[in-house]
Specification:
Rossmann fold, 5-stranded parallel β-sheet, 8 strands, 11% strand
Length: 453
């Protein structure tokens, strides 16, 4: 109520000002009183053409935004894949945004049937706004989250709704709000100038021809109210939380991974060779610790194993069909999800929700984050975020576990507890575990075999 009070006061103030102007002008046919406006609104609502005109205009608006959004999604996807195509079309969008709406309408009147003009104008106004926004969003997608989704085998539905859509959401709804704001006004203008058979703009034009100021202002108020409803609807849609799509039954059976064989692996970043003819066989049921100076290829080696990177030369024999549990250099948590949902998301492909909750409970307790499960990542410290990332990897039932400097930001006591839990779990699951670290103590405590790159 407190939030609405300023708006109510502002509306009351405007009504008082309007009434004072109407009283001072004293020409009700040109500047009607507030009471006369309310009566005109009432007459409109009970008239036979009101709902037809409003319905047709709303239908044009919804059709325009639907076509514009569908086309924008297609073009934005192409632009994100082919940057040169975006640069080629960018001047076209600048021109479309710069041309006055009335110019589009007047040109369309020369070539098109009047009934089709409002819809075309809506598309020409909405399409470039939505396309530019969605393209910017796609350019800013975090590649680390895609790598996380790939390694944890998150299925397409949950990947789209819980990894890509949340990143695009600010750009999408900002574009929708702008597109509907400009597009709604353009549709009504198009109806008025093209003199369509039905529509709010057509009724406004008719009222103007007959110099019926009260009806013209009443239709204007109706247009503003519908625009307000559209704006609030977009804001409401933005707040909707989409639940995970869970497996209908548990469909995962843990099988020990065969050995990971790397033969003559070569990899280099531009002007920076990292691995040269690296050959090694990682056996099952073994914990490998990898040590190297910064830039020595530890992270690169793990990314080659999980498939994020492709070797320039050589061959890797590995079974990724059951996914690979990873703790990445960065935590790669989803900011819109709670701690519990971040840990459980990779389980959606294999387990029902009930099984996933049971599976997760032991891990979050062991890592001392049970009290944090309802929090979002931005409410956590760096060390807490790191523990959530470790919990996600340990909960995921893959036969391969890759840990890239997993104990950063954690105190020594906690590190020892987590290492003890990993070794206990390893004895039960017989996973192939490969981890990287700079610290000799961690290698001594956790690794069965130490590899110096």
């Amino acid at each position: 109520m407190k939030k609405r009070l300023p708006a109510l006061v502002a509306i009351l103030f405007l009504l008082v000002v309007w009434e004072m102007i109407a009283w001072s002008v004293n020409k009700p046919e040109i500047v009607p009183s507030a009471f006369r406006l309310l009566r005109a609104l009432g007459e409109l609502v009970v008239s036979g053409t009101f709902y037809q005109a409003v319905g047709v205009t709303i239908l044009r608006g919804l059709t325009g935004i639907s076509f514009s959004l569908a086309a924008a999604c297609g073009f934005a996807f192409l632009f994100s894949r082919y940057r040169w195509l975006y640069e080629f079309f960018r001047p076209v969008f600048v021109i479309m945004r710069s041309v006055p709406v009335v110019s589009f309408i007047l040109l369309a009147l020369i070539y098109l049937h009047p009934e089709s003009i409002p819809l075309l104008i809506a598309f020409l106004i909405m399409f470039p706004l939505l396309t530019e926004n969605l393209t910017k969003g796609l350019f800013q997608l975090r590649p680390g989250l895609k790598a996380m989704a790939d390694t944890f085998l998150i299925k397409r539905g949950n990947r789209l709704l819980h990894i890509y859509y949340p990143q695009l959401k600010p750009f999408l709804f900002s574009g929708l709000a702008s597109a509907m704001g400009f597009g709604w006004r353009a549709i009504i203008m198009g109806e008025a100038l093209s003199q369509c058979s039905f529509g709010i703009g057509s009724e406004m034009k008719r009222a103007q021809i007959f110099i019926d100021a009260p009806e013209l202002i009443a239709w204007t108020i109706i247009a503003v109210l519908i625009g307000f409803v559209f704006d609030k609807t977009i804001s409401w849609l933005e707040t909707i939380q989409i639940p995970f799509k869970w497996a209908t039954k548990d469909n995962f059976q843990f099988i020990v991974s065969p050995a990971i064989v790397m033969e003559n692996i070569c990899f280099a970043y531009p002007d920076t060779p990292v691995l040269s003819d690296f050959t090694y066989t990682f056996r099952e049921d073994t914990i490998y610790g990898i040590s190297a100076p910064s830039g020595g290829g530890k992270t690169t080696l793990l990314n080659l194993i999980n498939g994020t990177l492709i070797p320039a030369k050589g061959n890797i024999q590995i079974d990724r069909s059951r996914g690979i549990a990873c703790v990445f250099q960065e935590a790669e948590l989803l900011p819109h999800l709670s701690v519990l949902d971040n840990v459980m998301l990779p389980l959606t492909s294999f387990f029902t929700k009930e099984t996933a909750i049971r599976t997760t409970d032991k891990t979050v307790t062991a890592l001392d984050i049970a009290s944090l499960t309802d929090k979002r990542p931005n409410e956590l410290s760096y060390g807490q975020q790191q523990r959530v990332a470790i919990a996600r990897a340990l909960t995921f039932p893959s036969p391969i576990l890759l840990l890239d400097e997993p104990f950063k930001g954690l105190d020594e006591t906690l590190i020892q507890r987590i290492i003890a839990y990993i070794k206990e779990r390893q004895a039960e699951k017989n996973q192939t575990i490969i981890f990287t670290t700079h610290k000799q103590e961690e290698l001594s405590l956790l690794a069965d075999v130490i590899i110096h790159l």
